Amino acid sequence: MLVHEARSAIPPSFELVGPAPPDTMLKLRLALVRGNVSALETVLMDVSTPSSPLYGQHLSKEEAEAFMAPKPESVAAVDAWLKDNNIAVSKASPAGDWLSFSIPVSKANKLLDTQFSVFNHSASGKMSIRTLAYSIPSDLQSHIDFVHPTTAFVPPLKRPVFNFVPRESGSAPLVNRTSNAVPASCQSQITPACLQALYGIPSTPATVKSNQLAVSGFIQQFANQQDLKTFITNLRPDLPPSTTFSLQTLDDGENPQVLSEAGTEADLDTQYTVGIASQVPVTFISVGPDNQDGDLSGFLDIIEFLLSETNQPQVLSTSYGFDEGDIPTALAKNLCSAYMALGARGTSILFSSGDGGVSGSQSQRCTAFVPTFPSGCPFVTSVGATADIAPEVAASFSSGGFSDIFDQPAYQANAVNTFLNALGSTNAGKFNPSGRAFPDISAQGEDVEIVFQGQFGEVAGTSCSTPIMASIVALLNDLLAAEGKKPLGFLNPFLYSTAASAFTDIVSGNNPGCNTNGFPARPGWDPVTGLGTPNFAALRTAAGI
């Protein structure tokens, strides 16, 4: 037996309670080493780079799985080990790169030559069973990526949007506009009409029903149909009031329609996809409570769920994330590779960059800057936030920075190096200048109007900007599909090349944190607002529509 993963100490936000009861059942997952991830990355870049002769030639489900599948010898060796220990497993991913099984703590301790213990997450009071190190047979080291959750001390997922602020009068905000000019009311309240005027987003209905937009839902945030109808009736009166979303569930997820159970995040995400991506089919994917104990199971499950679909959505919008340092490196890389596989199949994956400026997903004390995940994965598109309208400025909460896990990808090297050269020695030593830089783009994220539990009011955060940007991508995909063209798929090589000039550059503001002013927004790409905010007409031209 050789130690396979280990951490030197208990993370500061957790405390040891004591040994885990030996008869407690553990749900474990085993990640097998994938067959050819490096070749899959080459394919992803080929099908996602506009100058490539293979641009748009996305992989089929079976083709992507062939890259992700473990080698037969890995499967055989791991199966034999588990069979020798009388452990029955099930395949937990379409490519067979994940296995799952349940065994009591006593057996897990013996299998992995470890001692599982109970730990308490101080801030939430949630208990989890973890270990600081585990071992596997030496002859399986090259076949097993990791066993999960073992050393993964991930704080429970938090609701990302800022507090809902009800409108004092209770009345609906202004919506009508008589010209293409941005209404003055948009300076204090952002509505679909504001975004249509500000970014040139068309109100004409989409026509291609096979072009779909999916929204992730976690931590029992439920999307309410009644709130959506009130939103559509008042703020998109040109759409049929019955316009709504469809529902998919996994991990015992649900979406009850009792108004008092509506969630601000879920309402926001569905209202600004249904309400901006006019008549694009929208699906709300409600992931069950398994994700609440902080092991990322919901994040793993939703991506494997989408990879298992033959006709997966062309856009996935997720307004949740973590501090990168809370995610074990092996787990972060594994999940990032799954995003790569979905991107190679033609799905644009967008994540909010976070709301803590340079201090991470949410504001906190820190000395070194805190990158966020999944924004630091180079195979997703990270969305920051802006505020104001004349002109737009960086929202001070907009998370941005540089990954400590993932290297800077070639597609953004020129843009990032230009920023770093201009930055000079400011904040030197507080971030990794050679890491994957984020966000990539941004959109409005302050004073965004929603309907929550029957009331009009405002929320803020990169949770707002992400569904807005996802809707724009979905509308572009609709226009492409109407011409018989492929969807945009993985966006970043397109964004940093052909489409780089299709964004309004944000040149003022910053994202403070860690007792600093953070990074400045400046001409060109910056780690506050990325390339800037979208110009729909220019993006349409860049996409060749």
Q: Average pLDDT, to the nearest integer?
A: 94
Percentage beta strand: 15-25%
Q: For the CA atoms, what is the radius of gyration?
A: 23 Å
Report the total helices.
13
Poorly predicted sequence stretches spanning 5 or more consecutive residues: none
Query: What do we call the CATH homologous superfamily of the largest domain?
Result: Peptidase S8/S53 domain
CATH level 3 topology of the largest domain: Rossmann fold
Number of strands: 26
SS content category: alpha/beta
Can you summarize the main beta sheet? 8 strands, mixed
In the CATH hierarchy, what is the architecture of the largest domain at level 2?
3-Layer(aba) Sandwich
The backbone outline, from C-alpha atoms, is: globular
What does this protein structure show overall?
The structure is a single chain. This protein has 545 residues and is of the alpha/beta class. The chain folds into two domains: 2-34 and 69-148, Alpha-Beta Plaits, CATH 3.30.70; 195-542, Rossmann fold. It is 26% helix and 21% strand. It is built from 13 helices and 26 strands. It has helices at 37-48, 61-68, 72-84, 105-111, 192-199, 225-235, 264-274, 297-307, 329-344, 413-423, 462-482, 492-495, 536-542, and strands spanning 2-6, 14-19, 25-32, 90-91, 98-104, 117-121, 127-130, 133-136, 144-148, 165-166, 213-217, 246-250, 282-287, 315-318, 322-323, 348-352, 372-373, 381-387, 393-394, 401-407, 435-438, 441-444, 448-452, 455-459, 503-504, 533-534. Strands 11, 12, 13, 14, 16, 18, 19 and 22 form an eight-stranded mixed beta sheet that branches. A four-stranded antiparallel beta sheet has the order 4-5-3-9, sandwiched between helices. Strands 2-6-7 form a three-stranded antiparallel beta sheet, with no helix packed on it. The radius of gyration is 23 Å and the shape is globular. The N and C termini lie far apart (58 Å). The model has no long low-confidence stretch (mean pLDDT 94).
